[in-house]
Amino acid sequence: MQNILLALIVGLAALAASKSIVVARANRVYANWIRPRRCERNIVVIGGGSAGLVTAYIAAAVKAKVTLVEKHKLGGDCLNTGCVPSKALIRSAKFLSHQRRAEEFGMRRPAGTDFSFAEVMERVQRIIKAIEPHDSLERYTGMGVDVVEGTARIVSPWEVEITQNDGSTRRLTTRSIVIAAGARPFVPSIPGIDEVGYLTSDTIWNLRELPRRLLVLGGGPIGAELTQAFARLGAQVTQVEMAPRIMMREDPEVSALVTQRFRAEGITVLTSHQAKQFLLEDGEKILVAETAGRDVRIPFDAVLVAVGRVANLDGYGLAELGVTTSRTVDTNAFLQTNFPNIYAAGDVAGPFQFTHTAAHQAWYAAINALFDPFKKFKADYSVIPWATFVEPEVARVGLNEQEAREQGIAYELTHFGIDDLDRAIADSEAHGFIKVLSVPGKDRILGVTIVGEHAGDLIAEYVLAMKHGIGLNKILGTIHIYPTLAEANKYVAGVWKKAHAPVNLLAWVERFHAWRRGT
Ligand SMILES: Cc1cc2nc3c(=O)[nH]c(=O)nc-3n(C[C@H](O)[C@H](O)[C@H](O)COP(=O)(O)OP(=O)(O)OC[C@H]3O[C@@H](n4cnc5c(N)ncnc54)[C@H](O)[C@@H]3O)c2cc1C
Fold this sequence. Notes:
The chain is an alpha/beta fold. The protein has helices at 2-29, 50-61, 76-80, 83-100, 117-131, 137-142, 193-196, 221-232, 252-264, 318-321, 355-371, 401-406, 422-426, 455-458, 460-467, 472-476, 487-499, 503-516, and strands at residues 41-46, 66-70, 146-156, 159-164, 169-179, 183-185, 213-217, 236-240, 268-270, 274-281, 284-291, 294-300, 302-305, 309-311, 342-344, 385-388, 394-398, 412-417, 433-438, 445-451.
């Protein structure tokens, strides 16, 4: 009994010591500041994109006093220049691709599709307008959020100055701040780039005339999605990627399938090509790129720069205050910066750059900001899915083969070809595959890649399975509607099951049946 008591006292002392180190460190960053005795707000949120909106929503839902500051457009990137316009454009482009494939569906191919690029781009704007109310000032004000249209600047750990769009300024005191300032397109300083002029994912939505020859710099998801969409709309697209293949985060056969499709659709995909210089010769725009030690010249009419996105870290007081940053705002597992009452979420915090991860982080940032030190949660990144909306669509959750190898994680691979799936055949979309990585000898999923029609929807079953520890056996034992694409999930589980069939037991059962037949 005495020993137990002693161990308990030592344990508590160690815990108290480690806590006091954390508290001392935290106090040091506040040393030069005087904390206001009262605060007007529980949280001030900087940025009204996916991360900021969800933070404000959660704070208002739990009855906190919250101000959300947005300097440009509520909805941020996703609504205005990202997910929504890109998916709307992809839909119009897909319609055209289906028309071109008319004969595959038993139709006569129309002589030509009459459409105006400008009208397609106007439709994109209409879609944004239709979704806008979800992220609107009215909706959030109605929820109890104080929404301010203006630019926020952190002036102390507990104070935010807002320059409102009408030019007036106001200061708010707050217990916590959530930085949700997002990211912007990265534009590399390639000689000549300013002279030729360039488009980014921020500006491409203003186009009303289709460029005849579009050059896309970048083979990542944004570059790939817009490459295919613009090619389907009739531009001659050349996609230039420095790496040996496009969509480098995915396994090589995924890149190969997408590249094959792009090329079949008339896109020029140039991998292992490094952009060196832009030239303007007799009014013609030219990219000089280096490949295998030689220079190639690629003439074009417009260039889309899609080589990555950088976090917005400047101009709102982070450096002046001493909030530490690297490529993003530095945060701990609770999404706290080096000032424990200042949090960050979304693209500005990384490591992911998706709307759903921004929203996921926002929950942690809001709850931790409001309830620390009574209760706080570490952000859970164990099951993060994403999709790239090219055709064939690519979706992933957890590990793929290249990551498992890099991290030295042993895995068992189960593969199912969607080309053999009834519904995919009926839809003339019989292509792609599902690849499941699982723990060798165990029914535990490590990761799934799906390539094919509606891959982004099909992956949801595995996201649920991984999140809640459900294995392939349970997926196999679940009824899937016939004929659906979702049946592919069951079939891949069937392939896994077959590979784990109890061979010895089956030999005995065979003998049992023989005995029952009297043979
Ligand atoms: C072309 C494209 C397609 C995409 N497609 C998808 C997709 O299909 N699925 C997906 O999940 N993700 C997609 N994304 C990524 C997604 O858009 C981002 O991950 C998401 O918008 C990040 O949200 P956020 O809140 O962190 O940042 P943002 O949406 O960038 O919001 C930040 C906001 O902060 C504001 N702000 C900055 N500084 C201040 C300040 N000082 N004061 C006040 N306001 C400030 C900005 O004006 C901005 O509105 C796409 C992105 C692009 C570019």
